[in-house]
Amino acid sequence: MRFLWLLVALAIPTRAYADSDRFPFLAIGGLVGTGPSAGLEVSAGWFDTLANDSDDGPKGRDGFHFEPPFWIGGYGDVLYDADAGIGRVSFGPEIGCLIFGIDGGVVRELGGPGRWGLALRPALTFPVSLTPPVTFSLFARVEKWREGPSSVEIGLLVKYALHR
User: Fold this and answer.
1) How far, in Å, CA of 59 to CA of 30, rounded?
2) How far apart are CA 74 and CA 149, in angstroms?
3) b/e per residue, 125-150, with b = 16+ CB within 10 A?
4) Which helix (H) or strand (E) holds 6?
5) For the segment 34-75, what is each residue's pLDDT rounded down to a tens digit?
6) Beta-carbon neighbour count of residue 53 at 10 Å?
7) Which domains, ranges and CATH numbers included, belong to the chain?
8) Which residues pair with 66 in a beta bridge?
């Protein structure tokens, strides 16, 4: 999720991707949230600038038709909640357009009662640096547990793109 602006900047064609507006990405980062909690996340997937020179739709000054950047992929994270004294791991799909992203999937407590649940995390992503490629995302994750009350975590995710 959430490193869209970075990916937009990285979408400038290179020799390897000069004929393609779609490319794979791999990113790693750290997250902090209410609780307090801290952890690591890895994301991988495909980013598509959707820019082309077709005759469909309005064209910009450069003669290219442009639609908003889009990405789809998957994430995995692990974190430690200091207040509860337990860890959590989650993984699932992610999707986004422009600065808006959402991911969600299965979440499992590591320790304590070892509950299972589902997580959903909308986020807003902004670039911090293009060299090195770094973004930050503000997120709110809702976790619905099979046993016990739901929980909400608000936090910040900082990511570094390893591959495009």
Assistant:
1) 39
2) 26
3) bebeeeeebbbbbebebebebeeeee
4) helix 4-10
5) 989 999 999 999 877 655 545 555 555 555 555 677 889 999
6) 9
7) 4-13+21-48+67-163 (2.40.160.20)
8) none
Cβ-in-10-Å burial (0-12, 13-18, 19+) of 41 comes to buried
State the Cα–Cα distance between residues 105 and 121, nearest whole angstrom: 9
Backbone angles phi, psi at 7, to 5 degrees: -65, -35
Between CA 70 and CA 78 the distance in angstroms is 25
For residue range 22-38, list pLDDT tens digits in order: 778 899 999 999 989 99
Token pair of 95 as six digits: 């999707």
DSSP H helix total and E strand total for the chain: 1, 8
Q: Which residue has the tokens 């547990």?
A: 145
